[in-house]
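1st attempt posting a full record on here, be nice pls
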Amino acid sequence: MPAPQTMFEKIWRQHAITVEEDETLLYVARCLIHEGSRHTFDRMDEEGRAAAEPDKVFAFSDHYVPTANRELGLDAIADPKIRNMIELLTINCKKHGIRHFNIDDDDQGILHVAGPEQGITLPGVLLVGADSHTATHGAFGNLSFGAGASEVYHIMVTQTLWQRKPKTMRIAIDGDLPFGVGAKDVILAIIAKIGHGGAAGHVIEYAGSTVEGMTMEQRMTVCNMSIEAGGRAGMMAPDDKTYDYLEGRPYAPKGDEWDTAVDYWRTLPSDEDATFDTEVSLDADAIAPMVTWGTNPEQALPITEQIPSPEDAGTEAGKSEISAALDYMGLKPGMAITDIPVDHVFIGSCTNGRMEDLRAAAEVAKLGKAKVPTWIVPGSTTIKREAEAEGLDRIFTEAGFEWHGAGCSLCTAINGDLLQPGQRCASTSNRNFKGRQGLGSRTHLVSPAMAAAAAITGKLTDVRTLTEEH
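the predicted structure (as tokens):
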């Protein structure tokens, strides 16, 4: 009998073309790009090359598109450099015959949100994106990871990519999530436990009863931040929830091809006796609403805790890291996290800009009025339409939140949406690095419900205390 295989091993072998020394040439079934891929096209033009399989490449205008005054189209962009980025992608996609979800497309959105919505993301494929959070797509039972400009160029002209085979890590989360705890809290708890480099060199497979009980949107949130744990990719076994989500979507298989695909997809989960290089386990019952206090996602604690002291670290390097983080964030050891005021709230991104995220935030928004500027940015134009059909936009605006168009917005702060130096933001995005949301900005990563709670109280707040009162 063949040796038991992990899901990663099955997909890797299915896409391997040849091996030379310690690298494998892999066939790339899907390539996702955005406005930042201009250097790839420039090099293709210089060398007179065309896309090898343009029907396997999908482009999204997301990082640079404006999220305010979208009815003006490109006229909403004051900065000519930003406008040029969007126009260049349009020109290049037309030239190379690539499907482009442009600023005015009815299905425009963040590549890690709109891609799954369109059925571009499928189980069993190797999907590579020009963005580090491509791990999001692994929630569908595939191998998905980000690539740099030179790697994307290689994919564009050959539909292949050389890669060193990573190790495997299984993170098992079991039990029922407590009241007020969501998928964002799960992944922040994981990163706090293993560290922001804890999965370096590994592909993570998330497993356990908690994962099995998650919706597809929740699974995407967890896989999205695999990169913040240092992982090369994150993945989850496909199941009936996966197939129900995908069936009938524009780019998903149809008819007999659908049936054949599902039969294959059912063979993908890791074999029962498959072994992983590293095993990690978490008890879902012990997870609380999480907040980052420092300048990397590892520096996170339950909302009920206090800011740590450098003296809590066991090494001099650890002390220096905590001290530097506290200095940048303007915090003092021993402060209650719930005493930290915020200047701004951002609810959106490829981590938490989906319908379930907006619904969770809206439930909290009903309980009060925004005390600080709060932006709601849907992950796609499709989600924006669905949210408006449900009346979520009215709930937000009546609570004093700002309802925006779809895009990356304040997650990346490169489209004109940014914080001012010293401003503190409760954010549903994925990175709290120094200056991530604007020069000198301070970011606290939280779930959508926690972000909405901060909006109506003006400070980091345990959402459970609000919802229990109502």
